[in-house]
Amino acid sequence: MRRLILAYTVTELQDAPAELARQPDIARTESLAMVCHDLRTPLAAIKEALALLTETAAGQLDERQRRYLTVAREETDRLNRMIGNLLEVSRMDSGKVALSSDAVDLPELLSTAIESLSLLASKRNLVFERNILSPLPTIMGDRDRLLRVFSNILDNAIKNSPPGGTIRVDIGLIDPRSSMLAQKGIVAGAGYVGVTVSDDGPGIPAEALDRIFGKFECVDPNGPGTGLGLAIVRSIVEMHHGRVWAESTLGQGARFHFILPTKGNS
Questions:
Q1: Listing from the earlier edge strand, what are the strands of the sheet with 192-198?
Q2: For residue 59, what is the DSSP state?
Q3: How many CB atoms are closer than 10 A to CB 152?
Q4: What is the pLDDT of residues 38-75, one digit of tens each?
Q5: Exposed end of the chain (fewer CB within 10 Å): N or C?
Q6: What is the mean pLDDT of the chain?
Q7: In terms of residue numbers, what domain contains 241?
């Protein structure tokens, strides 16, 4: 089984969720968990080997060899994100998701997510702009899962941004009189922080703005990704008593918004 799974290519791993989606729920959940756990150990070894090679031998390589090494690191990180999303979906489908409750610094979480995606962003010469309210209230939530929210939304923005583009991240307080705080799932009377991630990409058709948060949904079925990242974002945000949505005008990029209750309100 291990040799079979290790033979998967990146393309085959992307196609796997679509095939798994056609299986019964229990079988799909078991298959997702099995693939994730079998891939994690060898992939961790590959990532460590690439990191050591980068530290010890990069100066001895020519430009083409360094480019190959960079591509290998990018693809390894990409596979790690895919596996993490697949594993998260298997946990959600099995009902085994238990959130921790920690004091979370959103700007620090944003910096961690940007750093983890730096290779992918630098390959496309993308720039991150941040506009963050200071001081910003603390969020109480599951740090690792909220990090996945940032990582998945930023990864989506990177994939859809033109080379040399700008990704803007705004974090601030939500007006307590805002109509969005009267919607289902929102904690009544709570203070909320809002995050907006904007890109310069091609935009999203109006009819797809809500559909893209469904499992295995992609605006471009031939594009990169598994169609799981935004579905996981919605699940995690809603488990934190928040809300996520997207706005877009074709040809003018897309804006992804999510809101979370501040400490003491969740």
A1: 127-132, 166-173, 192-198, 254-261, 243-248
A2: G
A3: 24
A4: 777 777 788 788 888 877 876 788 888 877 787 888 78
A5: N
A6: 82
A7: 102-261
Which tokens belong to 156?
């989506």
Q: How far is CA 227 from CA 17, 89, 136, 155, 198, in A?
A: 8, 11, 32, 12, 19
Single-letter residue type at 251? G
Q: CA–CA separation, 18 vs 215, rounded Å?
A: 10
State the total domains in the chain: 2
Tell me whether residue 266 is in a domain.
no
Question: Distance between CA 128 and CA 123 in Å, rounded?
Answer: 13
If 0-12 CB within 10 Å is exposed, 13-18 middle and 19+ buried, where does residue 17 land?
buried
- Nearest residue to 266 (alpha-carbon basis) of 31, 101, 75: 101
Residue identified by tokens 């291990």 is 2
- Domain ends where: 43, 78, 94? 94
